């Protein structure tokens, strides 16, 4: 048997080699993350993870370590996913500084709409965009999102189910899948499709809700509400820490809602709606700090509300 000193020396050598391989693996993982970002693919791939674990077990000479090697790779892949999320989200806030603020109805040459949730969508789309914009009807979310991604559409108008708007629900799941799509406008209409400008004090449950989605960093001028999704550690202090960010910058939170993330990841998603405009440097500063401090940050939208 080796002496304690000899064993420790050997462990140091092995660790050195492990760190070299870890670094190489992480560098490769970032390439995967970039590919995923460009192709709008989720960071998590459960099938691939199962494959990685299976290969690791097969590669063992001594199968008595099967459980441990599975554990090791599951941890490693959690680290890898968190890093991927950070790597692809990192540039988001600095990119936002290049945003332009416009009247989107003046820059839309093609807009899509769907009558799946509310048949009034067609009429609302006509009123919202006017005659200059070509309007195209879609019958599936995938088609409508593809239209935005391949830029055959400038914007899309979707009706929002009242139930859907209540929580971080399907809509936000859908948006999380598409890194580059944002909510550009959110509004309520009466039964004739006429936009209600002042909804203060109205029970909007009885009205029709719509959103405008678009790609890239063109946002409506003078927006005053921002939607955000962040992922933070599932630990006692993290939510308080998150909320403190907003109070430190004197930003008012209107709504905060959380949901457990995938059980293989030890963090959870928080949806936040707060007052502010992307034209405001204070907001960008807060977002930039927050981005560096959370596992993942996704701007969902900025609009007038
Ligand atoms: C690197 C990838 O992304 C994630 C991380 C993995 C890893 O670290 O091996 C495996 C699957 C994905 O959940 C990938 O998809 O290959």
UniProtKB/TrEMBL annotation:
Major subcellular location class: cytoplasm
Domain named ACT: residues: 227-302
Pathway, per record: Metabolic intermediate biosynthesis; prephenate biosynthesis; prephenate from chorismate: step 1/1
One GO molecular-function entry: prephenate dehydratase activity
Protein's name in the database: Bifunctional chorismate mutase/prephenate dehydratase
One BP term from GO: chorismate metabolic process
Keywords: Coiled coil, Cytoplasm, Isomerase, Multifunctional enzyme
Subcellular localization(s) per the UniProt record: Cytoplasm
Keyword Isomerase attached: yes
Alphabetized PROSITE patterns for the sequence: ACT, CHORISMATE_MUT_2
NCBIfam families the record matches: CM_mono_grmpos (TIGR01805)
Function: Catalyzes the Claisen rearrangement of chorismate to prephenate and the decarboxylation/dehydration of prephenate to phenylpyruvate.
UniProt catalytic activity: chorismate = prephenate
GO CC annotation: cytoplasm
UniProt domain Chorismate mutase: residue ranges: 1-88
């Amino acid at each position: 048997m080796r002496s304690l000193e000899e064993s420790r020396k050997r462990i140091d050598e092995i660790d050195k080699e492990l760190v070299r391989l870890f670094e190489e693996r992480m560098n490769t993982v970032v390439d995967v993350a970039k590919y995923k970002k460009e192709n709008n693919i989720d960071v998590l791939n459960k099938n691939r993870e199962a494959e990685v674990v299976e290969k690791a077990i097969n590669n063992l000479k001594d199968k008595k370590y099967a459980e441990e090697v599975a554990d090791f790779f599951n941890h490693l892949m959690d680290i890898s996913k968190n890093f991927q999320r950070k790597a692809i989200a990192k540039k988001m806030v600095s990119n936002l500084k290049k945003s332009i603020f416009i009247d989107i109805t003046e820059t839309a040459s093609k807009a899509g709409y769907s009558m799946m949730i509310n048949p009034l969508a067609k009429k609302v789309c006509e009123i919202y965009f006017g005659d200059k914009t070509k309007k195209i009807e879609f019958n599936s979310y995938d088609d409508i999102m593809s239209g935005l991604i391949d830029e055959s559409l400038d914007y899309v108008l979707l009706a929002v189910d009242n139930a859907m708007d209540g929580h971080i629900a399907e809509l936000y799941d859908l948006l999380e899948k598409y890194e580059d799509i944002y909510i550009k406008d959110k509004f309520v209409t009466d039964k004739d499709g006429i936009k209600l400008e002042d909804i203060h004090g109205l029970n909007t449950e009885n009205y029709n809700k719509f959103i405008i989605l678009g790609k890239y960093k063109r946002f409506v001028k003078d927006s005053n509400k921002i939607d955000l999704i962040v992922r933070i550690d599932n630990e006692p202090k993290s939510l308080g820490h998150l909320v403190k960010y907003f109070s430190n910058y004197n930003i008012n939170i209107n709504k905060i809602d959380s949901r457990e993330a995938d059980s293989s990841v030890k963090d959870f998603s928080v949806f936040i709606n707060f007052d502010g405009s992307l034209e405001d440097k204070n907001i960008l500063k807060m977002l930039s700090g927050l981005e560096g401090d959370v596992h993942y940050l996704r701007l969902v939208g900025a609009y007038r509300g």
